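Target chain:
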Amino acid sequence: MVEQLLFWVHGLSGAAWFGAIFYRTLVVDAKAFTFFEKRSDYEHFSTHLAHNMRYFVLAGLLICGLSGFALLGLKWDGSNVVWLALMAAKAAVWLAACMLFTYVSWVHWPWRCLAAPVEFAKYRKQGQLLAIGMVVLAGTGFALGQACRAVPWLSA
């Protein structure tokens, strides 16, 4: 029962993070960018939209990481080298996602918010690349999680 609850919590928190960053990066930003005639209006809208969202995202990442750590303990298979390697890769991807999100939230985003109009294009391009990196990391985490679940059947 605890294991099933942890699977649900882990999956839903990961899905929420992936969905939010995917939707924001590939749908909202693209549409908003073409909607506003003036770049400064787009930048102000984007800043307003993101205001205080970092704490919700960090909570999702923390819940995903803690539930994943608990699942790791419940499903531990120290004799399976492939499973251990996949779990190590999954942990590394989660840590990289946390570090990238922290950088974007507390370094890149303030720079972008305070940028001069002549710098908007530079920071927008950097922001897009960083956001795509987060989408890739979240997707890779899902793929590694599913691979970890498949290993026992592949090894049998």
